[in-house]
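Protein of interest.
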Amino acid sequence: MKILKSDLSPANMISKYPMSIFWIFFGISSIFGSCTQDYTVRTEILKWKDGKKAAVSLTYDDGTLNQFRVALPIMEEFDMRGTFYINTGEIPGQKNEAKYLGRDPKIVIDATASIPTNLENYFERAGLIRFLDIPGAVSFHDRSGATYEQGRVEEAYRVLDEGYELARKLKTINLIPPQIIDGPMIGWDELRTYAARGHEFGVHTISHPRLAVLDEENLLFELEKCAEDIERELGKAHLFSAECPFGTENERVMEYALDLFPATRNRMPEPYLEEINRSGTFDVKKDYQKEYVQFQRGPLSRTDQDLMKSWIDDIITRNDVWLVLVFHGIEGIGWEAISEDRIRDYFTYIASKSEDVWVAPFREVTKYMRQRMASEVMLQVASNEIKIELKSDLDPYWYDQPLTLKTYFDMAWEKVKLVQGNEEKELEVQQDEGGQYVQYDYQPSKGSLILKSI
């Protein structure tokens, strides 16, 4: 038996070969007694689970009621699982309520009478105003934050000056938690049942602020305390991914968020991933020169249904696209709510493409891509068995996603059995233009896998 270690890891191959090539070739000699026999075995980690042509993640923001009462049951009818980025501040039983951390509000408000908003005081004022007991407090924060992120800084300052003028006029110094969710929120017990059924839950802050205009203390409080409630109630597994509100890609916010969580939907700075955000344009015929393309789209209440279906049609004409759908309101509850009829029609259409499309939560697709790109294939080959092991430097706590492998071999095997851990099953020997092969899932947590001739 000869042991081989390939230096053609997926990460190395990206720089050595065109993106379309992802084969790992082995010329193997095994010596038994005085007889030498050469075998050729090549193993590919397929780009998507089960060899599908594309991946789709159904994600939801805010955690509003009908995401769970309407959309989730329809998904489960088609055996689909989704990702829900939840604001924890209004969930019954939450431990961490939204709060302002900083100086005495009266001192801040009084200073606005003589000192206009500027770069030195902007973050403090932007963070405080959403807690003031004045009409439109959250709107002042949101409008100012939006213009700030768009680079219209002077306008952002003016919006806050307008809000604080109202606060002084009303002599307001009382603080109240901002209310940002339409309708009632479901409780942790119900969320746990959905988590147990395979849905992902992720951090979306306590109270949905514009993180880009918060100072460090308040920014981290919103992210860390939301994560603390989720971990306590649902478990650490649901701290894999986060979505910072309003789809922000602010550099400062991303630096904090990517330090706290393995992944964010806002941004994934992988060198092999082309990111197209919700306002970007995807050209189905373009060669993006990267191994994967993440294509985000946010269906709204007025989004054309045929356009939504065309996103599915387009991605299955290629083999490198991950469509990330971002939903908000469902059936009358939440921002830009989409009707139940439209959601059912759309999910039915996606399910009709199940032969080509892998539908999975955001974390599962992220794990699959990262594991594939980081894994090195180790083979030991004999005349009657092939031992396969994948090695990577990724944290095994997080990176436990099964990977689909395809192994070609030129031995005259008619039947093949897979053995990994306590699992044993017979695999179908198949044939295509590349030769004879078997396709199977490799479970990273179960160690090496053996293919045996039987």
Notes: The first strand starts at residue 2 and ends at 5. Residues 96 and 225 are 6 Å apart (CA to CA).
